[in-house]
Amino acid sequence: MLALTMGDPAGIGGEIALGAWTALREDETPFVMLADPRWLSGMAGGRGIAVRPVDSVEEAGRVFAEALPVLPVPLPAPAIPGHPNPANGSAVTASIERAVRLATENRVGGIVTNPISKIVLKRAGFAHPGHTEFLGALTGQAGREVMMLAGPSLRVVPVTVHLSLRDAIDKLSTDLIVSVARTAAASLRRDFGIASPRLAVAGLNPHAGENGLMGEEERTLVAPAIAALRAEGIEVIGPLPPDTMFTALQRERYDAAICMYHDQALIPLKTLDMAHGVNVTIGLDLVRTSPDHGTAFDIAGRHVADPTSLISAIRLADIIRRNRARANRSHA
Ligand SMILES: NC(=O)c1ccc[n+]([C@@H]2O[C@H](COP(=O)([O-])OP(=O)(O)OC[C@H]3O[C@@H](n4cnc5c(N)ncnc54)[C@H](O)[C@@H]3O)[C@@H](O)[C@H]2O)c1
Ligand SMILES: N[C@H](C(=O)O)[C@H](O)COP(=O)(O)O
């Protein structure tokens, strides 16, 4: 059993959750949603989908084939599609907190999060840049969390995440590149079952600096990180020119691309296959995945949102849960 959070109730989270339940109800990956059942029922009625408030994870397991089970998290204000309201921020974060608690108490095998709006939550007093950092704090493992986005033909791991480009470049360091890449290699082994992971590290500048002609960071920051990783026995190539490292031919050479900033990583991933991309938090004991898109306020309420990325996220959370259980058994 997995726990699915509510996300911003003015976004597409409810719609795609109903779509995911329809696709997965006969599957072996049941989930329970932590949300306001009245909000979900309002959306589900017109689509002939049943939503069932439940009191426990066990009850959720019993009803999953017939109805989308919901552990109630009441919304303080009405949810209007496309019009986010910071007054609902407390319920959005409560849903995440309860899901994490269920996971840390081993009542669920992992959590899948629906998209939140960072700016709306900030207006509601939320102190974290996004889920990734919030989950580190909630699990008592702050600083270990790393973002990976995984698609059918590419995995990317940004070294810096929700920062302006200027701040991201200032934050880059050899130590940070090494620690993020190390976490990625460990996750590829434990979560994705790749015994000898191959990493590719991107340069920061055009042409990966071209020997200092277009920037020094490849020589001063990235190359020393690659040397340190190789010294630890990790297979690494780079610094690669960022404009060509995502071609089909280049992608054959590695299992994950370590990227210097958010868009260097996420643009190729989402352009190649947004529907099947999944955001995975690696480095924590918690299993957490999420669709690779946001709240999509522009289409919320129209019932045109594609649930494929959420379905992929639920399936991947279950795969990671199983891979970790297998790895733990073989180490026992
Ligand atoms: N995991 C998360 O919580 C997460 C991830 C990304 C963005 N966000 C948040 O989402 C908000 C909106 O961000 P954005 O506009 O940059 O990105 P977005 O992914 O919400 O939307 C970008 C475009 O893609 C479309 N789109 C997104 N998901 C779709 C789906 N499932 N089916 C069909 N079309 C879809 C949208 O309609 C929009 O045109 C921001 O507040 C951001 O913070 C949250
Ligand atoms: N950077 C992610 C994306 O653009 O898809 C996203 O904002 C999610 O961040 P969290 O998982 O930390 O909320």
From TrEMBL:
It comes from the Bacteria. Binds 1 divalent metal cation per subunit. Can use ions such as Zn(2+), Mg(2+) or Co(2+). GO terms for molecular function: 4-hydroxythreonine-4-phosphate dehydrogenase activity. InterPro entries: PdxA (IPR037510), PdxA_fam (IPR005255). Its EC number is 1.1.1.262. Pfam families: PdxA (PF04166). Keywords: Cobalt, Cytoplasm, Magnesium, Metal-binding, NAD, NADP, Oxidoreductase, Pyridoxine biosynthesis, Zinc. Pathway: Cofactor biosynthesis; pyridoxine 5'-phosphate biosynthesis; pyridoxine 5'-phosphate from D-erythrose 4-phosphate: step 4/5. Substrate binds at H131, T132, K270, N279, R288. Catalyzes the NAD(P)-dependent oxidation of 4-(phosphooxy)-L-threonine (HTP) into 2-amino-3-oxo-4-(phosphooxy)butyric acid which spontaneously decarboxylates to form 3-amino-2-oxopropyl phosphate (AHAP). Belongs to the PdxA family. This is 4-hydroxythreonine-4-phosphate dehydrogenase. The lineage of its organism: Bacteria, Pseudomonadati, Pseudomonadota, Alphaproteobacteria, Acetobacterales.
